[in-house]
């Protein structure tokens, strides 16, 4: 494939900042009156009024809300300041998962599961997909799946399936779990924080969504696997897998032989306990970003202590893994700051409320089900250009959340539309680095895979749209 010509995310976001600054000279400025409702600052419908772009106060001071070069160049730093709490939250999460990854607990746990089910190939697919789906829904398992393609693809091929079966067992499960996020701090957690909702709130309905989503994709993969095993020529990879089988079965590696030790079990138990404590704290004690960060930092410290006691890593290696985890998410943190800069320019130009008022007047006459479906489509489209889930949250939620307020749509529904928008698009978009890397490892051409998987993604989109409609009738989605 030719190299993608889609601009880098940073370039794209800065271009939008420039474009937004130009719009402050074109779009009329205006504002709503606001009020505090359930701890959130919301605009009051029907109070919009235009304001002048250039005003002079009684002391002769001139204020011009139109944004120029100064406003554009200051947008990144001002956006970073506005999103400081979320930025630090992301870095702490990244560092914490760096330590958890260093412990080897996740890799060892999955490897043990594969060994336990050896010879029971009918159970390998659903059990493995549930585990990957849990990883996706709780912490957005994405890059962490990369090592497992070299385990599951040769495993599935040795059992008589094809490379796509092994690929979907890992990729589709993690992607579906991430789309149906429950406590994933990198997507729904950040989006809820920006929407002024407690991260982790509404988790009960989100778990119901996850169960339905996972049941559907697991059923699909098992049906496909049975079909291909019965008739290999039904596989879109039938010809290519003739070469792939020799490659994978000759280079399967020993990742699936990783020993599961007592320290791995303790780390996984500590992680599970931390997640449950976080859910309880959010619901019972109204915990917010600071407390959620505390939980993940505590999980990381526990994992570090256990790993050092087991003598699998020293204090320097643990510290380096924390730093590396932070580095891995530095790009996401920068994207959040830059994306918030777009909002800063629009807010200073007093055009956000004008845009919201126009959208509200345009969409207010639509049934809410159509409104939520349109939101989902918009998020799908943006995800192709901004494949970073955290960046997309920072870019869209500040606009979508108050828009939902104006048309009386729960902010939790707005967040749900965002998470499915980014989750479903990243199952197929060529701008997703993880997807393209995984397909490269699996030796599956992107165009062949998209042609195969697109009908399934379309069905998942319809299911997501139904979830949004159902969510309209639930007060705490």
Indicate the percent of residues in helices. over 70%
Task: Label the overall shape.
Answer: globular
Taken as a percent bin, the fraction of beta residues is: under 5%
Low-confidence stretches: none
Mean pLDDT figure: 82
User: Radius of gyration from the CA trace?
Assistant: 24 Å
Helix vs. strand class: mainly alpha
- Our count of helices gives 20
The H-and-E topology, N to C, reads as HEEEEEEHHHHHHHHHHHHHHHHHHH
Q: Main sheet: which strands, in order across?
A: 1-4
Topology, number of strands: 6
- Report on the biggest sheet: 2 strands, antiparallel
Distance between the termini: 41 Å
Topology, element by element:
Elements: H1 9-26, E1 30-31, E2 34-37, E3 40-43, E4 49-50, E5 54-56, E6 62-64, H2 69-82, H3 84-103, H4 105-116, H5 121-139, H6 149-158, H7 163-179, H8 185-194, H9 203-230, H10 241-250, H11 262-285, H12 289-309, H13 315-328, H14 330-348, H15 352-363, H16 368-385, H17 389-406, H18 411-425, H19 433-442, H20 446-471
Antiparallel strand pairs: 1-4, 2-3, 5-6
